[in-house]
Amino acid sequence: MSELHGVTVVVDTKGARVYVGRCHDIEADRIILLDADGHAEGEGGVSKDEFVRRAARVGVWGREARVAIPTSEIASIRRLGEIPVE
Amino acid sequence: MPYDPALVQPMRDELTRIGVAELATAEDVDAFLAERPGISMIVVNSVCGCAAGMARPGVRLALGHSLRPDRVGSVFAGQDVEATARARARFAEYPPSSPSVALFRDGKIVWFLPRHRIEGRTPEAVAAELTKAFEAHCGAPKS
User: Fold this and answer.
1) Are strands A74-79 and B21-22 parallel, antiparallel or unpaired?
2) Terminus-to-terminus CA distance in chain A, angstroms?
3) Fewer CB within 10 Å of terminal CB in chain A, N or C?
4) pLDDT digits (tens, 9 = 90+) for A25-62
5) Mapped to the 3 state alphabet, what secondary structure does chain A carry?
6) In this predicted model, what pLDDT tens digit does every residue of B4-28 receive, in sequence order?
7) Is A63 on the interface with B (CB under 8 A)?
8) Per the CB < 8 Å rule, is B95 touching A59?
9) ipTM of the predicted structure?
10) Closest CB to B94 among A56, A59, A80
């Protein structure tokens, strides 16, 4: 079991999307998030960075019960709680 | 589905024995937040590990600070469903998370500590976040 199990993380992808959610498991080929929310760069005029900073400030709307993100698409994984809040 | 009440009782007791009022119904929440003036704090308790290892011990440490809220209550997520929903309705701009902690001035939310800023931290670190908020919002020291 990953040390991130149960921890709210930010999964940035190599593409336009970023995800924030509770890490359920990290497998060889994918990471599984529960109660997650995703955002695409520029969607609604909001950058990925702005989306993540807002999530760090207020939390995560769990719009998707379960999201599986292929490891090959992942650029980085960070704990949401480590992102500075203004 | 709620857990066995006997299993959850020690998790409730951990807060009530340090003076935290248990808000078991929506009416309890309304009455608690209707008390004015001053600073009220609501702890959203839960059965998860970060409530046991970080949130509840952090709250206990923080309430030993010279500055603290005028009154402190708790709702139990997943157990006291209506009370938790009523409390969350008072800070609906924040996504639901548990454990979490909310501070209110005269019944209006002024500060919120979501689960992701509790998980993975020590009780001392959680207490430091809380006492920083107390210093910002709770006015003159109490004896």
Assistant:
1) unpaired
2) 33
3) C
4) 999 999 999 999 999 999 999 999 999 999 999 999 99
5) CCCCCCCEEEEEECCCEEEEEEEEEECCCEEEEEEEEEEECCHHHCCHHHHHHHHHHHCCCCCEEEEEEEHHHEEEEEEHHHCCCC
6) 899 999 999 999 999 999 999 999 9
7) no
8) yes
9) 0.87
10) A59
If we measure between CA atoms, which residue out of B78, B74, B68 comes closest to residue B13?
A: B74
Residue B122: DSSP 8-state: -
Cβ B117–A61 below 8 Å, yes or no?
Answer: no
Per the annotation, the verdict on B138 as an active-site residue is no
Q: What's the rounded Cα separation, in Å, for the pair A21 and A11?
A: 8
Tell the residue number behind the tokens 């998980």, with chain if given.
B119
CA distance B30 to B27: 5
Of B104, B100, B134, nearest in space to B117 by CA? B100
For the entire predicted model, the pTM comes to 0.91
Give the closest residue to B26 by CA, choosing from B76, B78, B81, B86. B86
H helix or E strand, kind and range, residue B91: none
Q: Determine the residue of chain B that is closest to A83 in CA distance.
A: B117
The residue annotated as part of the active site, out of B20, B48, B72, B130, is B48
3-state helix, strand, coil in chain B (%, to 5): 45, 20, 40
